[in-house]
Amino acid sequence: MRLLILLFISIGIGSIGYTQEIRYETVENISYVDETASDYAKEQCKLDIHYPASGDNVPVVLWFHGGGLTGGGKEIPTFLKEKGLVVVGVGYRFSPKVKVEDIIRDAAKATSFVMKNARKYNGDIDKMFISGHSAGGYLALMLTLNKTYLAAEGVDADQFAGIIPFSAQTITHFTARNEQGIKEEQPTIDELAPLFWVRKDAPPIVLLTGDRELEMLGRYEENAYLKRMLSIVGHKHTTLLEFQGYNHGMVYPGLPILLQEIKRLSDLRR
């Protein structure tokens, strides 16, 4: 059954629980790799952090940008600014200069860096969320369903309070398939597919997609299948929301829901 999302209901999108005046700052181009990294990694592997410079610690959301794992740039969605959050926009390397697995490892390094430094930016490490659009949503799911990438960086993926990808690929990403000479119209599920790693003990997951008739290459159906398989293995906290009338570029209608879900899942951690 399709879900019609009403975006202008009262969902408290002004902030995540803050009423006093808060001063926000943004720091840009923070490197999350060490000096032994390649010049390309030093150029790409940077992040921006928008954070409240006063007040109590607040939830943290990592935002991975889209672009098919071949392009794009780190970003902090304007809608998320000054909403009672620490928002981190993550940059990473691109195919074909590196393999998809290398990109996932970049995302893991960035995530580890943020978790280890969140308190410096008034971030609450018990309320960490991971999100992103399209390729960014794919990275969010790969990092949290396949725990080995974050474990290699000293992080337990189950520390996250929520996983909230926007229009993510849940089968093997088409750029990974391209590395294998497989056309993007040919679906594949292997170790580079979030679906391969379904597990009952993953943190709460909220899957957001555009209209199934307007989305890219079966993107809604991929997410619906992930939800179904998570349910089959016993995961009890998976939600799937479809934005009728919106295509793959469904970031804005999703952002108010992202805020709503961060608040809901944060409240569960109190």
Number of strands: 8
Number of helices: 7
- The N- and C-terminal alpha carbons lie at a distance of 33 Å
User: Any idea what the shape is?
Assistant: globular
Mean pLDDT: 93
Order of helices and strands: EHEEEHEHHEHEHEH
Residue share in helix: 25-40%
Order of strands in the sheet with the most strands?
A: 1-2-4-3-5-6-7-8
CATH architecture group name:
3-Layer(aba) Sandwich
**Low-pLDDT residue intervals, each spanning 5 or more residues:** 4-13
Q: From the helix content, strand content and strand pairing, which structural class follows?
A: alpha/beta
- Within CATH, the superfamily carries the name Alpha/Beta hydrolase fold, catalytic domain
CATH topology: Rossmann fold
Main β-sheet description? 8 strands, mixed
Rg calculated over all Cα atoms? 17 Å
Number of domains: 1
Pfam families: BD-FAE
Keywords: Hydrolase
InterPro entries: AB_hydrolase_fold (IPR029058), BD-FAE-like_dom (IPR049492), GDXG_lipolytic_enzyme (IPR050300)
Domain BD-FAE-like: 47-148
Secondary structure elements and their pairing?
Layout: E1 24-31, H1 39-44, E2 46-52, E3 58-64, E4 86-90, H2 100-117, E5 123-133, H3 135-145, H4 148-151, E6 162-166, H5 174-179, E7 205-210, H6 219-233, E8 238-243, H7 251-268
Parallel strand pairs: 3-4, 3-5, 5-6, 6-7, 7-8
Antiparallel strand pairs: 1-2, 2-4
Helix pairs in contact: 2-3
Overview of this structure, please?
The protein is an alpha/beta fold and 270 residues long. It has one domain: Alpha/Beta hydrolase fold, catalytic domain (Rossmann fold, 3-Layer(aba) Sandwich). Helix content is 29%, strand content 20%. The protein has helices at residues 39-44, 100-117, 135-145, 148-151, 174-179, 219-233, 251-268; strands at residues 24-31, 46-52, 58-64, 86-90, 123-133, 162-166, 205-210, 238-243. Helix 2 (100-117) crosses helix 3 (135-145). It is globular. Keywords: Hydrolase. Pfam families: BD-FAE. GO terms for molecular function: hydrolase activity. InterPro entries: AB_hydrolase_fold, BD-FAE-like_dom, GDXG_lipolytic_enzyme.
